[in-house]
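Notes, p. 3: input format for complexes.
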Amino acid sequence: MASPQTPPGFPSDVRYLTTPVASPLLPALDRLTYTTPCPPHLLPNPPPRVAIRVITDPRHPAKGQRGLFNAGTEDLERGTWIRDYVGWVHTEAEADPKSEYDLSLERRAVTPLGGEGADEASGESRFEVVGCDATTMGGEARFVNDYRGVPGFERPNAVFELRSWDIPGMVGRKGVRMAVWAGPHGVAKGAEICVSYGKGYWRPKEAQGQSRLAEGAKEEPRAKVGRGRRVAKAKQG
Ligand SMILES: C[S@@+](CC[C@H](N)C(=O)[O-])C[C@H]1O[C@@H](n2cnc3c(N)ncnc32)[C@H](O)[C@@H]1O
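Output follows (237 residues plus S-adenosylmethionine):
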């Protein structure tokens, strides 16, 4: 299969992906769920035109960096799928706490051997995270900035939400992606596409845990399931 065409403005030192890449340490079921390619006809809608641009506005807090913009000829309606957040899908042990591109796909309770999900010594539940880091490889969604401080923004115009589809030929198995969607008021033609990373992202680095972008996903605990259908709860917030 021909490799996907790298979009204009994509940095040459980052590998362009359209499908996530699994760490060799990722359990087989997570690999299936989070890295199986999604057939184009099962995307929620045709990919809208976006552009990666270097930010030149001196008032923008990410000036000199890149951002993602609605480059189509129309506004994007509320709930329009924009792009999947693709990258390197990894286990919690492999997470880079300094990464600025790591997002949590799933946070699940771990049941200790012979236990009920609680650590016997502390009595607390333990969780593990499946992360997706777009530092060295990723797609257009890695350029989505946080709305805070961006001129003209009082709130995000886009959201991170999970989506899933039935994997063809595998009864009961779903592929899952974190995706960027147009928010409740849509994304105006020409506008930068900005989400909320969540307040946790902006805490001092030393106070942060793994998967910094994960906080954004947790703050908006909703999921897209099937072809654009909105459900009340994320698969695992
Ligand atoms: C996921 S990356 C977003 C894309 C990034 N601007 C780029 O050019 O690759 C996250 C980083 O972008 C920058 N950023 C995003 N939103 C920002 C904001 N509202 N204010 C300041 N920096 C921001 C920060 O450096 C942050 O760590």
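The mean pLDDT is 86.
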